[in-house]
Every structure is written in structure tokens, then in C-alpha cells.
Design brief:
- This protein is α/β, with parallel strands linked by helices.
- It has two domains: 174 residues, Rossmann fold, CATH 3.40.50; 85 residues, 6-phosphogluconate dehydrogenase C-terminal like domain (6-phosphogluconate dehydrogenase C-terminal fold).
- The protein contains twelve helices and nine strands.
- A six-stranded parallel β-sheet has the order 3-2-1-4-5-6, with helices on both faces. Strands 7-8-9 form a three-stranded mixed β-sheet, covered by helices on one side.
- Helix 2 links the parallel strand 2 and strand 3.
- Helix 3 crosses helix 4, helix 4 runs parallel beside helix 5 and helix 7 crosses helix 11.
- The longest helix has 27 residues.
- The protein is globular.
- 36% of the residues are buried.
- Bound molecules: nicotinamide-adenine-dinucleotide (NAD) and prephenic acid (PRE).
- Nicotinamide-adenine-dinucleotide binds next to helix 1, strand 7 and helix 10.
- InterPro entries: 6-PGluconate_DH-like_C_sf, NAD(P)-bd_dom_sf, PDH_C, PDH_N, Preph/Arog_dehydrog, Prephen_DH.
Length: 299
């Protein structure tokens, strides 16, 4: 299978964190890459990446890495891409392929259309649906994408060969690659990823700001831990995601507020039957989702 996949003599990863670092490790494990250049904002994380064998060279100068690479993976928080795409347009080799791992796609495609001119066909937007609340190169894992979805949202202008290469690289990580429009992508992930993160951050922030908050944290247990795991995620990354997907996320927040208002009214009326019915529907839907994930092994 490997023989049919385009090899990557030089892979440059801008943002060598959990996601970019895991992509580099997976490409190394698949034997598809000869050299990985890690690009970062500061040396401490890059030195960790070098030390752990995630990358082979490091630099804080994106232009030099962009000019040298055959595949460019942009894995910074999504807000950074408006600064990075002008460098891509200026320095990327005509034959090199660019992709990204951002959690939002509409704004990334917008930045690409604004800044990538001659290099727009080289770009294939992507998003691995895998992750964790951990950040940085030390969190990178070679099997992070194994049996996970990766969504690509190719542009009409993306070259067929670039789409094929990016799909094949992700497939080589063990992922199941799906294609959709950026609009549908952003709508889906507003509901199943971005809203849950906002809710989790909001609850922990609310309790942290109580004068007697430590009393509540003292007694919080596994239910609280499960609901709030994702409130340990990176604040800058999630700020960028919320701002980038503002309209779809706001719609989900309004719908959720309406749902909370409905349950609030039922509780005020002590309407146990209706409350139980909502909980039963939710339990059934979640169990069916878990079962389907277990069957497909795309956990
Ligand atoms: N964490 C997840 O669960 C997850 C899952 C899928 C996609 N993503 C997306 O992947 C991207 C990276 O997320 P992550 O979890 O790896 O974050 P991370 O914090 O682990 O890594 C991001 C790295 O990018 C660096 N960086 C930021 N701006 C930079 C710049 N201008 N130039 C060079 N380096 C820069 C940071 O210093 C950091 O080392 C984000 O766009 C995020 O939305 C995250
Ligand atoms: O597992 C986690 O901690 C995640 O937040 C992963 C998660 C998600 O919401 O499922 C977060 C952001 C991504 O863009 C994709 C996956």
C-alpha cells in the first residue's frame, strides 16, 4: 500500500503540539517521511519535540521551513493561519502540498481564499477528529489518529493530486477519511465539540469564581471529572475555535439555552414525568451512539 502513497522528503509542521506532533510521528511510523522540520513560536516546546524524536530539525522562522518542504502541515491555533498563509503564498515550492488540522474550516478556507493565490490548488483543508485536553509536543502520540475520523473539506480549486495525497497520508495514520463542505463541518462540530467545551469551561469558571468554590471542588467526584475533562484544554486554542465558528456556535448555544429553559420550567412545575422522559430519550440516544462507535471501532 505504501508504494502507492506519495513520499514526503521534507515535512514541515508549523505548531508542533499534540496534533501536529502526532501527525509527524504517524508519518514517521508509516515510513513516508525522510525529514521533519518543526516550526514554533518558542524554543522550549521545539526542543522537547527534538528530544522526543517528533521532529528532526527545529526553527522559529516559518518562511525558511515553508520554502524547503514538500508537505506543509499547519497545526497552530486556527487564528494564526491568517498570518501564516501570506508566507505560504510567498515561499511555498510550486510542487509542495499544504494542509491544516484546524478544528474549524469556514474561517480557514476564508483565510486561504484571501491569501493563497497561485498556491490555492496546493491547499487541502483537514481536521482530525481526535485529540485530548493535553497540549504541546510532549503530548504527541504516533497512534492518535488510529481508527479515528479525519474530515477534509477540499476547495473546488484544490488539485486532484493534492487531495489524493492528503487523503492517503491521513489514511496511512490509520484514520477513516471523510469529505464534506466547510459549512456542514462547522455546523456539526459546533454541536458535538465546540458547545460541549463552552459548557465545560463555563461550569468550572462559575464554581472557581464562588467565594466558597474550594468547598465544591473538594467534594466534586467522577461525574464532575467526566463532564469537565475538556475544561483542561488549551484556552488560546478554544478562544480561536469559538471566535472562528461564532455563528454556528451561537445557534447551538441558543438551542441549548432553550433546552435548559424548558427543563427549568419543568422543574419549577415539579413535572417529574416530562423530566424523566427527556432523560430517558437522552440516555437511549447516548447508549445507541456508544454502541455504534464500539461496532465501527471509530472511537
Ligand atoms: N487538541 C485537540 O483535541 C485537537 C483536535 C483536532 C484538531 N485540533 C486543532 O489542531 C490545532 C493544534 O492543536 P493542538 O491541540 O496540537 O495544540 P497545541 O497547543 O498542543 O499545539 C499548538 C502549537 O502551535 C504553536 N504555535 C502557535 N502559534 C504559532 C505560530 N504562529 N507559529 C508556530 N507555532 C505556533 C504553539 O506554541 C503550540 O506549540 C488547532 O488548530 C486545533 O484547533 C486540536
Ligand atoms: O478529546 C478531547 O479532549 C477533545 O476535545 C477532542 C476534540 C473533540 O471535541 O472531540 C476536540 C477538538 C477537535 O477539533 C477534535 C476533537
Amino acid at each position: 500500500m505504501e508504494n502507492n502513497i506519495q513520499r514526503i522528503p521534507v515535512l514541515a509542521v508549523v505548531g508542533v503540539g499534540l496534533i501536529g506532533g502526532s501527525f509527524a510521528l504517524a508519518m514517521k511510523k508509516a515510513g513516508l517521511v525522510d525529514k521533519v522540520i518543526g516550526v514554533g513560536r518558542g524554543l522550549a516546546n521545539l526542543e522537547d519535540a527534538l528530544h522526543h524524536g517528533v521532529v528532526d530539525e527545529i526553527t522559529t522562522d516559518p518562511a525558511s521551513a515553508i520554502a524547503t518542504c514538500d508537505c506543509l502541515m499547519l497545526a497552530t491555533p486556527v487564528g494564526q493561519l491568517s498570518h501564516l498563509f501570506p508566507l505560504v503564498e510567498k515561499h511555498l515550492k510550486p510542487t509542495a502540498i499544504v494542509t491544516d488540522a484546524g478544528s474549524t474550516k469556514g474561517n480557514v478556507v476564508g483565510f486561504a481564499r484571501e491569501h493563497l493565490k497561485d498556491r490555492l490548488p496546493n491547499f487541502v483543508p483537514g481536521h482530525p477528529i481526535a485529540g485530548a485536553e493535553f497540549s504541546g509536543a510532549k503530548a504527541a502520540k504516533e497512534d492518535l489518529y488510529h481508527r479515528k475520523h479525519v474530515v477534509i473539506t477540499p476547495l473546488a480549486e484544490s488539485s486532484i493530486s493534492a487531495v489524493a495525497a492528503v487523503s492517503a497520508w491521513w489514511a496511512a495514520t490509520g484514520a477513516d477519511v471523510r469529505s464534506m463542505t466547510p459549512e456542514l463541518h462547522d455546523q456539526i462540530f459546533a454541536a458535538v465539540s465546540h458547545l460541549p467545551h463552552v459548557l465545560s469551561f463555563a461550569l468550572v469558571d462559575m464554581l472557581a469564581n464562588r467565594t466558597n468554590g474550594s468547598l465544591f471542588f473538594d467534594f466534586a467526584a467522577s461525574g464532575f471529572r467526566d463532564f469537565t475533562r475538556i475544561a483542561s484544554s488549551h484556552p488560546e486554542m478554544w478562544r480561536d475555535i469559538c471566535l472562528a465558528n461564532k455563528s454556528a456556535l451561537l445557534q447551538e448555544m441558543y438551542d441549548y439555552q432553550a433546552q435548559l429553559s424548558k427543563i427549568t420550567a419543568l422543574l419549577e412545575a415539579a413535572n417529574g414525568a416530562e423530566i424523566e422522559s427527556i432523560f430517558a430519550t437522552a440516555r437511549e440516544a447516548r447508549n445507541a451512539w456508544l454502541h455504534q462507535k464500539q461496532q465501527s471501532l471509530l472511537k
